[in-house]
Amino acid sequence: MIKYFCLSISLIAALLLVAGCDRLDNQRIPPAPVNITFATVGDWNVQGIGGALDYKRFIKEQLLPPDYHYSALSATGFGGILLAGDVNGEPVAYDLSCPVECKRDVRIFVDAEAMVAECPKCHSTYDIFSLGGHPLSGQAARDGFGLRRYNVGPGRNEYMIVSN
Predict the structure, then answer these.
(1) How many other C-beta atoms lie within 10 A of the C-beta of residue 31?
(2) pTM: predicted TM-score of the whole model, two decimal places
(3) Residue 155 domain-assigned?
């Protein structure tokens, strides 16, 4: 009897442990094409980011930023692109759409004082500078919804941002 009781307790503990594991869903935002290129190092220096903790938003429909030259091949994801420099100065890119809201026009913004990205509607916050878009608070943290990431890599001369 005690053997079955201990086995039951062990099984329940194992199930709780597995159920309690944090899982990140960073695929809630629908896949959408991304193509932002910087033809020269000079273009990157002017239109890209300057280094650690710097950021810039790219939204083709709104021609943001105004100094970026969009082409017919340019694409900025589902809701736009947030290009940021992580704490080491490496460029990272996220979709601007909040994964809780899943709408093109509900875009996260960077709270420069708190150094987090925040959704203006659900008020979820995300770490964009050191934790790869992981949720920090709000419904996104409760449900495990992270920001969709995009690849940033070498282009012809400097960087390009493309879909996963």
Answers:
(1) 12
(2) 0.84
(3) yes
Residue 118 domain-assigned (yes or no): yes
For residue 128, what are its two tokens? 């964009």
Structure tokens that stand for 58 in this block: 């790219």
CATH of the domain at 40: 2.102.10.10
Give the count of beta carbons closer than 10 Å to the beta carbon of residue 79. 25
Say how far apart CA 134 and CA 49 lie, in whole Å: 21
d(CA 38, CA 53): 20
- Is there a domain that residue 10 lies in? no
pLDDT in tens, 89-146: 999 999 999 999 999 999 999 999 999 999 999 999 999 999 999 999 999 999 999 9
**How many domains does the chain divide into?**
1
User: Of 107, 90, 89, which Cα lies nearest the Cα of 99?
Assistant: 107
> Which strands, in side-by-side order, build the sheet including 109-111?
109-111, 116-118, 125-127, 134-137
- Dihedral of alpha carbons 164, 63, 30, 125, sign: positive
Give the residue numbers spanning the domain of 36.
Answer: 25-162
Residue 45 CA to residue 97 CA, distance in Å, equals 26
* Bridge partners (DSSP) listed for residue 58: 81
**DSSP for residue 61:** G
Q: Does a structural domain hold residue 3?
A: no
